[in-house]
Structure formats: C-alpha cells, structure tokens
C-alpha cells in the first residue's frame, strides 16, 4: 500500500477505517498558530503517510542538546535487527516501573523492536531514573517510523529537548510524582464533581491519580491516542493534563449514568487499586461510546490557565517533595492515614468532615497531618494569643462554629505574620490557593473567582525589571475601606514560599478587589474582600460577619450574616513523614 514506507511495523488488519487513507496528502503550513488549529482539527489524522511525515517534521524542529543520539548512532550500536534476541530475553529497564508495551495495532514482532529501542535508549540516556510512559511513547512513534533507527532518533529528541519551559517526557521520579500531585490539584479545581466521586469511593485519592499518565499513554485505544499525539507534538505536555481531566469527567458521567450516584459510607470505600482498575477498564473501552474528536473537544473545553501557571504548580509540588526527601520511588503513603479518626480530635468538625476538607487542599500537603495550633476553648478569645499561636505556620486552616450551629472556615495559604508588612494598616496578602467553605447547613467550597472565571485575568509575561505586582495591588497610599484595602506585595524572592502558585503577581487583574485574600491587624481578621468580606472576626474572637465578596464570589457562609462565635480553631499542616523519622 501507499504508506508502506511508514507502515512496516503496522498490522493493517487491526487499523479499521484508518487503513484507508483519505484527506490531504501534504502539508506546507509553517505558522505555529495555524499548525495548532490544524492539529486540533485532525487535518492529517486520516492519512497515515502524511501523519508520519508531519510527526518527523515536528520532532525535527524540537530544540535539543548539542549531543543527541540519532539514527546513525542506533545503527552503529544495534546493527541489523535480523537475528537479534526476542523481547523475552531483552527485559525493559527498571525505570519503566513495570509498564508493558501497548500493542497499538503493531505486528507481533514489533514489540521486540520496542524493547530493542528502549534498551538502546537506556544506554544513551543514563540519567533517566523513572519513565513509565516510555514504552507507550516508543510503540506509538514506531507506528509512524520507516525503521527502528528513525524511531530511536525521534524518541531521543523528545528526551533531549532543552527548550526552556518546555516539558515533554518525565524522566525522574520527582518529576513524575509532582505531575501526579499537579493532576490532583487540577482535578480539584476543574473536575469538582468527578473529584468528589473519587473521594467518596476510593480509600486513597492520591493513589488513584498516580495512574493519570497511564490513562492517556497506555490505556487509550490507538485511534484516540494518535489524535492526542497529533496535538501533543504541537502544544506540549499540558495536552496530557487536558485529556486526562476529560477522561475523568467522562468516567464520572458513565458512573452517574450507571446509577452509581449514591456514595458509599466511610467503611464501604473501595480499595484504591480497584478504582484505578475501573478507570483503566473504562478508558480502554472508551471507543465504544466516545470518538477521538469528542474526547479532544471535551479536553479543550476545560478552561485551564496557561502553561506558565501549570509549570508554577509543578515546581511548587517538586519543591514540596524535595523538602520531604521524596526524590526516588518509595511506597506511597495513604493520604487517609494522615487523618486517623482514633487520634484526631476537634470540637468543630468530625474526622470525616476534616477528610472532606483535606480533599480540597493542594496536593503537596497530602502527606501532612493536621496539627491544632489554636482553639478558643483552650487559649481564650484573644486576637493577640491567636497571632502568637499561628504565626510561623503556612498554610493554615481556620474553622468556626457559630452559636447557631453553622460551621464554616477558610484554607489560608500564607503565614499570618505577613500582615506585619503593612504596619498598623489593614493590608491584604495571600495567594489564589486560598478558599472559603461552609460545612453546615450544607457543604460547599468557594475558590478564588479567577479560577472559575479565567476571563477576569490574563497571564503576565516575564518582565525583566518591572514588578508585576504593581498591576495586581493598590499602592500603599490608598484608603483602607472594605472595597479597596491595599494588598501587600509578595516577597521579592518567593523561592522559599509553600504557595507560589496562583499568586496575584502572575496575573493582570481587571479589578483589584479580586485578589483580596486575607488580612489582619490588632482589632480584626478578615478573609476575602471586595464589596464585602467572606469572613470578618472581631478582636475578641467573639462576633463575626459574613457576606458575599468579590474575591471568592461566595454567598454568606452562615444562615445569618452576623453571628456569634461559639468556637474557633486554627489547624496547621505537620509533615507526617518527618514526624515518623
């Protein structure tokens, strides 16, 4: 057939409609914007030879290290493939973490070729320590290679990419693990219903999300993953996040349609491995109900931030793992263990309610356990004692029970000591990871309004000398009323902060009121500002108010806008692994 130059490893009997090439036979587009548009539309998806040629063109254009092994290196090292050992005696390296080679409509002996290519890659890239997606990526590109040496060169270029800020393939456990945490953060924000389902059904949410890359590169049918590769080679790593989130959304929809809406009780949760297997089975069978184009349509309908913002979150998660000493593969710690009902004690929330709150917090705190820092029942109703006990801790969790039995609170990303940067003036500080919530009379969380409405902000491009916080915060000279309290600038060097992601300094905000996260002085503490406060607590920690605010776009968090505090607690996040050492 016409595509035999790029189809020598393909079992055409398994290809279905893709075996019959149609559509355009060449592509002369160089403009990146037009190329992105054509990739999403599937311009070359119906012509195997054109698709292979486009892949070669795109991969050749990837900036790589000066010394990157090419096809000639492979031929010199491996020679002619004829008579080489079978895959059974050329085991895959340990860094693939047990991942098998997907068949992807390849001939049976092509699996041998994938093993040979990966074996050679392991010798040429000794720094790779963890790369579970390599078998899938190699099998996929072998599909569109004229010979195995060309496949080797293509994979080598993906691994050797050195373009600043561009991420293609995770090659260390630290990068892989932080990507799993980042996916969990994105699932919380952009797939709340699906995330709620996973929290309700799985014993360990973190373990379920650890398989997200496998869903895309390994479990998806060939016709679907090839369309993902079309866009991935043009737009990069964030495409994998988008597709995995879309799969999670479709999984939830399928479970809801199957009558699985009733959530199990605490003792009836499934083993995490069972939930992972269910998702994998769903993804493998997705072709029967969802077309490749429908999957991509769902993926790109999710309104994510830019690659820069995802990179910030990835770096924050990597830093958190490094601080915990997690840089190589080890047994995962069940996140539920951090909230042991036998030892957890709060006068405001139950252990189950605290676990629900825990499912909302950023993933990098999943290995932390709650540490009671302050409670009015023990430390009294004094704002000075409040500050004395909570300063030096970041982040913190504020819990309030009112005399009317309402329960509400806030996750606060920044140390309360930051309030001192404004002197005696009431100044807002914090980041967009802050959120407010209520548990009673019903459970609901309210995030930074920019997360739900990205149109309110646009990413700020890197600036060499200007401080981008100028665009996000009022100047110190502005008045401090409820609608325009000044916002403290973040520290000049944020590298030691735990919450750099979603900092207001990374955005051009069309309203200063959308970045008023937390504030405090000698006579009150405030969470959320702009046209009101989500929470206002007086200096005696006795009376409070709640109202809609622009920053979180929340309704009042209690049944009455003015309330009397029955009990107030502040919890910190203690490194559970450090306490075990």
From TrEMBL:
Keywords: Cytoplasmic vesicle, Membrane, Synapse. Its main location: membrane. It is a peripheral membrane protein. Residues 461-497 are annotated as: Disordered. It comes from the Eukaryota. InterPro entries: Rab-GAP-TBC_dom, Rab-GAP_TBC_sf, TLDc_dom. The keyword Magnesium does not apply. GO terms for cellular component: cytoplasmic vesicle membrane; endomembrane system; synapse. It is found in: Cytoplasmic vesicle membrane; Endomembrane system; Synapse. Transmembrane segments: none annotated. Residues 347-574 form the TLDc domain. May act as a GTPase-activating protein for Rab family protein(s). Involved in neuronal projections development, probably through a negative modulation of ARF6 function. Involved in the regulation of synaptic vesicle trafficking. PANTHER family: GTPASE-ACTIVATING PROTEIN SKYWALKER, NUCLEOLAR PROTEIN 7/ESTROGEN RECEPTOR COACTIVATOR-RELATED. Interacts with ARF6. This is TBC1 domain family member 24.
């Amino acid at each position: 057939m016409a595509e035999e130059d790029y189809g020598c490893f393909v079992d055409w009997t398994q290809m279905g409609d893709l075996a019959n090439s149609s559509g355009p036979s060449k592509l002369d587009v160089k403009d990146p914007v037009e190329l992105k548009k054509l990739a999403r539309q599937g311009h070359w998806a119906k012509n195997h030879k054109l698709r292979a040629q486009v892949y070669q063109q795109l991969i050749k254009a990837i900036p790589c290290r000066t010394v990157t092994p090419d096809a000639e290196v492979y031929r010199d090292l491996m020679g002619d493939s004829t008579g080489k050992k079978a895959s059974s005696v050329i085991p895959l390296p340990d860094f693939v973490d047990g991942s098998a080679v997907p068949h992807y409509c390849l001939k049976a002996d092509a699996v041998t070729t994938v093993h040979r290519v990966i074996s050679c890659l392991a010798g040429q890239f000794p720094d790779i320590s963890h790369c579970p997606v390599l078998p899938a990526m190699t099998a996929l590109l072998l599909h569109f290679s004229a010979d195995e040496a060309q496949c080797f060169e293509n994979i080598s270029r993906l691994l050797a990419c050195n373009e600043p800020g561009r991420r293609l393939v995770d090659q260390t456990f630290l990068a892989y693990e932080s990507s799993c945490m980042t996916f969990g953060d994105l699932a919380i924000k952009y797939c709340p219903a699906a995330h709620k389902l996973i929290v309700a059904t799985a014993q360990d949410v973190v373990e379920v999300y650890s398989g997200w890359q496998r869903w895309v590169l390994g479990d998806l049918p060939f016709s679907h993953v090839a369309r993902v590769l079309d866009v991935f080679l043009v737009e990069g790593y964030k495409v994998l996040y988008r597709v995995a989130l879309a799969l999670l959304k479709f999984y939830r929809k399928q479970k809801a349609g199957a009558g699985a809406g009733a959530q199990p009780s605490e003792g009836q949760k499934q083993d995490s491995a069972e939930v992972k297997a269910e998702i994998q089975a769903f993804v493998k069978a997705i072709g029967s109900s969802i077309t490749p184009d429908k999957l991509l349509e769902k993926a790109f309908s999710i309104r994510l931030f830019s690659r820069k913002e995802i990179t910030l979150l990835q770096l924050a998660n990597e830093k958190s793992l490094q601080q915990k000493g997690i840089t190589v593969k080890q047994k995962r710690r069940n996140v539920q263990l951090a909230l042991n009902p036998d030892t957890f004690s709060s006068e405001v929330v139950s252990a189950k309610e605290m676990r629900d709150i825990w499912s909302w917090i950023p993933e990098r705190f999943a290995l932390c356990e709650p540490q009671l820092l302050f409670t009015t029942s023990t430390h009294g109703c004094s704002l000075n004692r409040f500050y004395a006990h909570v300063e030096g801790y970041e982040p913190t969790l504020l819990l309030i029970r009112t005399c009317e039995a309402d329960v509400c609170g806030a996750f606060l990303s920044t140390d309360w000591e930051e309030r001192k940067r404004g002197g005696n003036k009431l100044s807002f500080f914090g980041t967009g990871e802050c959120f407010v919530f209520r548990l009673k009379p019903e459970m609901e969380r309210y995030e930074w309004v920019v997360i739900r409405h990205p149109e309110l902000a646009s990413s700020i491009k890197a600036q060499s000398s200007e401080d981008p916080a100028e665009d996000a915060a009022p100047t110190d000279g502005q008045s401090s009323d409820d609608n325009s309290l000044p916002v403290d600038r973040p520290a000049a060097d944020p590298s030691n902060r735990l919450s750099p992601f979603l900092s207001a300094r990374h955005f051009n905000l069309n309203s200063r009121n959308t970045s008023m996260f937390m504030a405090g002085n000698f006579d009150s503490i405030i969470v959320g500002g702009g046209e009101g406060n989500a929470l206002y607590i007086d200096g005696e920690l006795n009376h409070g108010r709640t109202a809609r605010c622009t920053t979180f776009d929340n309704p009042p968090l209690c049944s009455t806008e003015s309330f009397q505090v029955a009990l107030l607690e502040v919890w910190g996040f203690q490194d559970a692994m450090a306490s075990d050492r």
